[in-house]
Design brief:
The chain contains 17 helices and eleven strands. The chain is an alpha+beta fold and 439 residues long.
């Protein structure tokens, strides 16, 4: 694929050739040895030879650090480029000033190297364990209830201890005979507990933060977990049930609105209308036609009422149970009431839980983005410290922590000017991905 480059320009000794970032990342896979890749940027000045960084060098480095294994967003590409430019600037300025051998410089530089080489800091044994664990859990769904005592991650030791002791006392109350649901409604700091008694319904892997998931999947059914810590506070949970995962289902629905705020007359009218539509369906009328004529969901009425695939825990429980209760594609449900009104559902497709090979890529991506991935780095560092007989000078380490101001780079702060016209050719960009940038 051809690389499209714009006219280079120079900022703080960096000559930049703005290129199509999607094309850069594709170019490295082509292996074209007939001509060198275009120059992405050039570092010059300081009475030293110029150094050119080409697109293939940068794309190779980026791809090694791109866990998504999909086309990156512009923001992701620019963030990584900015980090790489800073790295190059710092090295060059330090060499010019004769500071490249100082301890402080090496410590600062290592921070950039760690970020650029992050994927290599992974322990393979831990990675395999986490992958196998995630797959096994993806085959199951757990129903659990919890009680939470909220305390901030940054709370003082005294406040943390008080919260922990309160959680222990509440757990002991349950052991001594208090009803879990009633105790959750009155004692838990989870705002939803007042309505659901702490019952979180069914969920599978990656649906809860990892410490919570770990307790839910390792505590026997009917038993209480120990008190444990998350970023939200201290919790303990009770496992209510565990079942085989149901996969994902896709349904179409016909909605007749009937919110709780309606008076009795309006509610009766809505019920009569949905019953009349159900009778027409039983008489053989087209579901899609009735949806188009009568459904009060404006986002789906012109699409036959079809919704995206969803799994356990993604919809209101009554709606979800009715959807998964349909035995065959094309089956219709009886009218189902939710806080939105009355629904009639039609099953479109049931997608079973994928096997290991099919799920592997998605699971690896989710692990990489999850806090459980930190175990890879932590375990590898423990191994490396033992292998290289690592000894830590805590006084020196404390001094490094206190010297966090990057005085060297402050003089060289670099920003892409407005004249850097990053452009994407038609057909190479999905506009919806931009709108989902926050995800």
């Amino acid at each position: 694929m051809k690389i499209h480059a714009f006219k280079p320009f120079t900022v703080f000794g960096i000559t930049l050739g703005a290129v199509l970032f999607v094309h850069i990342l594709k170019a490295s896979a082509q292996g074209n040895d007939s001509e060198p890749a275009p120059v992405l940027f050039e570092v010059s000045g300081g009475n030293m030879p110029a150094e050119q960084v080409r697109t293939d060098e940068f794309s190779t480095l980026f791809n090694k650090n791109n866990f998504k294994k999909t086309a990156p967003t512009r923001a992701e590409w620019e963030e990584y480029l900015d980090l790489y430019v800073k790295f190059k600037l710092k090295v060059r300025e330090a060499v010019r000033l004769g500071m490249d051998t100082t301890t402080r410089f090496r410590e600062e530089l290592q921070g950039y190297r760690n970020q650029l080489a992050q994927p290599y800091l992974r322990d393979k044994e831990t990675g395999k364990f986490l992958l196998d664990q995630a797959f096994e859990r993806s085959q199951l769904e757990v129903r659990a209830a919890h009680i939470m005592v909220r305390v901030e991650e940054t709370a003082s030791p005294a406040d943390s201890l008080a919260a922990y002791q309160k959680a222990l006392a509440l757990r002991q109350d349950i052991v001594d005979g208090k009803d879990f649901s009633e105790w959750a409604k009155t004692k838990s700091d989870d705002p939803s507990a007042g309505d659901n008694g702490g019952d979180l319904g069914y969920f599978s892997v990656f649906r809860m933060i990892y410490p919570f998931e770990e307790m839910a999947f390792t505590t026997p059914v009917g038993m209480l977990s120990p008190v444990f810590r998350t970023q939200y506070g201290y919790h303990f949970l009770k496992v209510i049930d565990r079942r085989k995962a149901r996969g994902e289902v896709r349904v179409a629905h016909l909605l007749i609105k009937s919110p709780a705020s309606d008076n009795d007359t309006l509610k009766a009218q809505a019920k009569a209308k949905v019953d009349a539509l159900m009778a027409k369906l039983k008489a053989g009328e087209s579901f899609e036609a009735l949806v188009k004529q009568h459904s009060e969901d404006p986002s789906t009425s012109d699409k036959g009422g079809v919704l995206p695939f969803f799994g356990t825990g993604r919809m209101i429980p009554d709606f979800e149970e009715a959807a998964f209760g349909l035995a065959q594609d094309g089956d219709l449900s009886s009218p189902v009431q939710t806080p939105y009104g009355w629904h009639i559902l039609k099953r479109i497709e049931l997608r079973p839980v994928p096997g290991f090979e099919q799920a592997k890529g998605d699971l690896e991506l989710k692990i990489a983005r999850d806090i459980r991935a930190n175990q890879n780095t932590e375990n590898l560092i423990v191994k490396l410290k033992a292998e290289y007989q690592f000894n830590e000078n805590k006084e020196a380490l404390e001094a490094v922590f206190k010297s966090v101001v990057d005085s060297l780079y402050r003089k060289l702060e670099w920003k892409a000017p407005s004249s850097w016209a990053m452009k994407v050719a038609p057909g190479n960009w999905d506009a919806q991905r931009i709108s989902k940038e926050k995800a």
